[in-house]
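#struct-queue
[09:14] JT: dropping the first one here, sequence first, then the structure tokens:
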Amino acid sequence: MRAGPWRQANVVVTGAASGIGFALSRALVHRGANVWMADIQGAKVEHEAIALGPAARACSLDVRDAAAVRALIEGVARDAGRIDYLFNNAGIGVAGETDRMSLGHFDRLIDVNLRGVINGVAAAYPLMIAQRSGHIVNTASLAGLVPAPLMSGYAMTKHAVVGLTASLREEASVHGVRVSALCPGVIETPLLDAGNPADLARIDWAPGIRRYLTRLAGAPYAADRLAAATLRGVQRNRGLIVVPAYARLIAIAYRLFPWLVQAILREELREEMREKLREELNPRPRAPADENAPSPVPNAGLRPLAGPKPNRVAIARDVELPTAGLVKGPGRPSVGFAKRAKRLPSQPGWRGRP
């Protein structure tokens, strides 16, 4: 396997104990990088780092703690001589109807998903300016590019991460520093089956994340494949890395035909409300919450639109949107989405109704 720019690079990955963060860490180690794996689950990340070998080092870290984040990043730069990459990947998810969410849910989402990214940027960016090099990769989501009903707080933070990243990217280019946003679709991780944070007030009803997102976007994409595609995007200095192919197609569709994506979303939302009613009429006993279980980090997506493959359309100047293979291979859309798209009005100018 070609190492490219990764050999002997010093990399910090947050949220590295499982899911996307672990997949990125493993891919980086295999490419010859020195990886500092940081996670709030200290024992788990230490176990995973040991399994990856001496190139991986475990760090217990709560990204909400700005002083701890700064100490870790400055320590890596001091001990290793420099910091080459920072993957701000740690995040949580909260699903449910917005009117049932407490301010505590919003605060937690902002503290982890947004302030955690800010803490990483604030610590690493000045060091990279001094080095005149470095690359910061902030994990956002497809939910940072398109609407995500029943995950409004999560989508809010991911839109903010995309905005921060896009703006900082232009500033950083003056100093020789690179900045990218990773926007995954639905990724196969254990978090798809976890619930909302157990220490927050229970939301009366929330959709099953795996069921909901699979119905929207089809089968989840493998985390290892996501990691490989992400590293290719970073190596090519893409400002917006949207993976997999169906996620790119959805992002294009929402830019060009927002009314159609909104109409499909509303149909899916109505189906979720029917599911809610069925659950209320036939309640199932809930398993006791696992206080040690991680919170879900849904990378929201929609099923792509039916029809011919679109021409190459760039959402931004430096976004890679290939025309070939957008709906082929793993993560391709389900037939159900295409059928729903055909049922919707197609006459010019139709915008749907709220």
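[09:21] JT: and here's the second one, same format:
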Amino acid sequence: MAQIARRFLVHGRVQGVGFRWHTCRDATRTGVSGDVRNLPDGGVEAHAEDDVESLAQLEQAISAGAGGARVVHVDVEPAAVTGIYDSFQVTPYMDLKQHIRSVPDFPKPGILFYDITTLLRIPGGFEAAIDRLSAPYVDKGIDLVVGIESRGFILGGPVAERINAGFVPIRKPGKLPARSVRESYNLEYGTDALEIHADAVERGQRVLIVDDVLATGGTAQAAALLIKNLGGELHGLAFLIELLALDGKAKLPGEKLFSVLQY
């Protein structure tokens, strides 16, 4: 049977009662591969890969709970088949914020810069970031992921691969070789512009924009305008980090936004 993947988000009294170990046992018995981990909100997340029948059996076991667990609700979402698991395992939850470095007065005085390179260099850190960025967009019919120069390239390419979409770069002026279109914007420490190839997006294609940070929203707004001006259908914008105090959402009214971390 064909392999599929599912993400299970389990809510209730499921931490500190052996729930992860019971889930691992049940998955192993049915031959399901993947992993299970605790979440900081008190829930449990499991990623499972196998055929439809085996995953249905695992869902029943998860919903029933085990030992002293009390399962209130289970959210089941489609996920990408990674093929990286050869068994089912219990995985410690990674606190992404713990591994992101804050750099004051960069690139200009008064700016607090969140450096994600300290997260990406940790084994499992890059994978965890991509897992959480891509999860809401699996099987959503997205044609293209657009990454904004430059950290949007680091994140956007793997997200595109994970959700089976194409990838298109948006670059700073003068970096693209063929005919391009440009959109200028303001950002928290000056002004800049973005460009995209004029033939990068076909009319009606469903597009997801990916970048590392949503700050004042100027960069994201310019990218959204570029996509729409080419006739693309903007499905949403996904960010690893959102700086809430800067209210970047205000420049993107009506758009579907997702951020993994908020500061």
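[09:30] RK: nice, looked through the second one.
[09:31] RK: The chain has six helices and 14 strands.
[09:31] JT: good to know. The mean pLDDT is 92.
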